[in-house]
Amino acid sequence: GEPAIELSRRQVRIYPQRNLFSHVLGQTDEDNKGISGIENHFNNQILNKKFSESSFQITLDTVIQSQVRDALEKAITDYSARGAASLLMNVNSGEIISLVSLPDFDINRRTLVSDEKYLNKITLGVYELGSVFKALTIANALELKIIDENTLFNNLEKQVFNCGASQPINEHDKNLKRDLTATEILVKSSNIGTVKIIEKIGIENHKNFLTKLGIFEKASIELPEKGKSLPMKWDNCTLATASYGHGISTTPIQLASAYASLVNGGYKIYPTLVKQNQNLKKERVISEETSKKMVKMLRKVVDKDDPMQGTAKRADVNGYSVIGKTGTAVKVSKTSKGYSKDVMTVFVSAYPEEKPEYLLLVMIDEPKAIPSKGFYKSDSGWNAVPTAGTIIKRIGPILASKNYNIALNVK
Question: Tens digits of per-residue pLDDT, 10-48?
Fold first, then answer.
């Protein structure tokens, strides 16, 4: 026969926002079958003709997502970081307003997903997250009534040997005073003080508390890309280091969920990308009394006018009464046993103090100290904290607006 060209009609998905929601929306294959992200999770509903006549509402906000992504890109440049990520969530409903993981990718280009840029750091990344775990340790002790916020710990050492003489646990701040209250231990982020508190708690009590908060489980979010805490052997050494977030791992989204419970009055929340029924049954995981105490203590970490002078003053945005806790964790080495010299920094914040509504987690992957720019340390207080402050300044007015709308529908 004669040579000919045969034309066929084929539906192709186009994503005009390209990278903006890449880690959430995910990708489809050549047959429009979802292979990652929401596209995968809701694949059957999206392809169902009856369903396609309606829609379900995604909780993400386009304007806020763009503002957060811009701030994280600037942070990567400013701190010569490898990457960054953030999560913005309603602490009462679990609705996710923004989820960014950098590097990201243009979802219009179907390529192999083995590259690092395809890793969703918030939901799939599993990390040791450092001193943000101190708030969980102290909340547990308050819940068990082992301590109160004013309990005084006298003559704290600068070094303890729970893991043996060859692996001393040191105080990160050599200038900390020897006598600290439980509140000061949190605000000044004392390793030794937190170890002394968890010794009073014990292994089973702490495992049970973290389990209740969901630290060890996969998130409920509507994405297939979900990580889970790595198994750990519990003994007196790992209990001590877990008190300050070393040797214990989780995903950032599960950490955010746990913090939401600390500050929302004590209720467990389940992070979601789909608009929720506001009459959901609430499950209490800690007492309202403990939650109120934690909110007050976490405010002191951020309050630049507080005499204790906490580690997160650079996020104290006027008018928002931000609360939160910093964390700086040395990363596990990829080439040998033990740890590398690189760090992962994180800041979990919420606002307003009076009745927390929004939780913002910011994470910076391998930030550098750059004295020439005025960044004298690579600790969280020098990068994740000011980045969170910038984000809150930008998104606060949007969230407060009476015209605030969820702006992304899936059909």
Answer: 566 666 667 777 767 666 666 666 666 676 656 556 555
Token reading at 368: 């550098």
Report how far residue 88's alpha carbon sits from residue 361's, in angstroms, rounded to the nearest whole number. Answer: 7
| 29 φ/ψ sector (left φ>0, alpha ψ -120 to 50, else beta) | beta
Range of the domain at 193: 58-410
- Residue 210 CA to residue 219 CA, distance in Å, equals 14
* Residue in this structure with the two tokens 């995604």, named with its chain if needed: 58
In total, how many domains does the chain have?
Answer: 1
8 A C-beta contact, residue 178 and residue 197 = no
In a domain, 227, yes or no: yes
Q: Which of 153-167, 329-343, 386-400 has the lowest mean pLDDT?
A: 329-343
19 belongs to a structural domain = no
Supply the Cα-derived Rg of the chain in whole angstroms. 22
Residue 228 has pLDDT above 70, yes or no: yes
For residues 184-218, one letter each, b for 16 or more C-beta atoms within 10 angstroms of the residue's C-beta and e for the rest, the string is bbbbbbbbbbbbbbbeebeeebbbebbebbbbbee
What is the value of pTM for the model shown?
Answer: 0.90
Give CA–CA dist 3/13, Å, rounded.
31
**Tens digits of per-residue pLDDT, 309-321?**
999 999 999 999 9
Q: How many CB atoms lie within 10 A of CB 109?
A: 9
**CA 339/CA 195 separation, integer angstroms:** 21
Contact 330, 339 (CB under 8 A): yes
CB 97 within 8 A of CB 90: yes
Residue 26 domain-assigned (yes or no): no
- Helix/strand/coil for 93: coil
CA distance 308 to 383: 21
Question: How many Å apart are CA 382 and CA 3, to the nearest integer?
Answer: 67
CATH classification at residue 95: 3.40.710.10
Residue 338 lies in a domain: yes
